[in-house]
Prior knowledge:
With 514 residues, this protein is an alpha+beta fold. The chain contains 12 helices and 13 strands. Strand 2 (98-104) and strand 3 form a beta hairpin. The longest helix is centred in the C-terminal third of the chain and has 85 residues, at 377-461.
Amino acid sequence: xxxxxxxxxxxxxxxxxxxxxxxxxxxxxxxxxxxxxxxxxxxxxxxxxxxxxxxxxxxxxxxxxxxxxxxxxxxxxxxxxxxxxxxxxxxxxxxxxxxxxxxxxxxxxxxxxxxxxxxxxxxxxxxxxxxxxxxxxxxxxxxxxxxxxxxxxxxxxxxxxxxxxxxxxxxxxxxxxxxxxxxxxxxxxxxxxxxxxxxxxxxxxxxxxxxxxxxxxxxxxxxxxxxxxxxxxxxxxxxxxxxxxxxxxxxxxxxxxxxxxxxxxxxxxxxxxxxxxxxxxxxxxxxxxxxxxxxxxxxxxxxxxxxxxxxxxxxxxxxxxxxxxxxxxxxxxxxxxxxxxxxxxxxxxxxxxxxxxxxxxxxxxxxxxxxxxxxxxxxxxxxxxxxxxxxxxxxxxxxxxxxxxxxxxxxxxxxxxxxxxxxxxxxxxxxxxxxxxxxxxxxxxxxxxxxxxxxxxxxxxxxxxxxxxxxxxxxxxxxxxxxxxxxxxxxxxxxxxxxxxxxxxxxxxxxxxx
Length: 514
């Protein structure tokens, strides 16, 4: 069946009164829709999220370059920003579980800061609510008439009850106690209110659907929050509170991390300080125990002392050998007139004098033997004197030898002590170096922890907010809906619809071809 445009135009001209009625009816309906729609505005805010990219994996940048998915800290922060926890805290803080509107002709105009009447519900009731509730309030000039509905279903409510109360009274309803606080005087005109009470989970879900949180660009750190609402001031406060909670939430995490780091560092500092004190005390005790001032100087001193004892011991042994030689010379009975060498280096003065006297007497005896006989009394007396002096010298030699043996024994003992000290120097040095090494390690660890503690304190005191607000939440001046062009489009569509229906009803008895 072909459509004849001329036939349709003739039909419309012939039924001009139907077209006029449709235009008027369409305009009436369109105006009604416009008058019943509350103006909707856009509220938006812009943030720059600061992220900690220092802990990102080194492969993330390469994965992004290759087109693969890497760690996206900004997207993670966006999820945190729009999380149920932050939205729920913001809704609870601002009391946004209740939404109140006042009847103004055909519209239900939202009330937020300046309300006609406050219906105060107990906080416990709001926290324990499981289903949506609606409270229709009618003020007749003196009393408040409440109709409370609870448990919204598709077309009905599961529970419904009516109540009447005065200003300032508390009404015990099926959803809990409600306190009425009127904000107008007694001469106020009657009005109607509609208050919707949402469970916290439902309020959060609706906010998550209403508020769009998107990045300005794919790799940008700037995030935009926007929503369309007929109560701009309400959403401005909500977005502001969300930003504050996000900053507090992230700052608290960083504060906890920095606080725990500072606590850990302080604890480790106390332990290291105690260990360092113990090591320093051990080093001091070790130095006192071994009389250590400087191991290198003490080693040199030990060597000089040992060498001096060795020299002294050699001298005593030389004296001992001289005494043995003199003793063997005097013990030889075959030659009673043998002279004792006077320059052998005997150090004892009395023995040296005895040897000199003995040699003088022997020389005189040899001279006398050349002029006198052996039976000469003087000769015999000198021989007796020589024998006596030999016995005296031998006796003195025995005493000298005994003294030298004691001195040699003492020197050997002292030399062994110094040799032990010399041999113990490497061991002492090793043990001392080990103690010093532990001391240095603890000192370095203590300095490192002190530095980290100062860094943690500075970081804790000078943390920047995670979200820098670029544009604070604000209402845009342009109305989102309803728009005049949309109203005109609705009027044309309705006019055509009513015209078609009117013409069909007017000619319903005629054949379809006509």
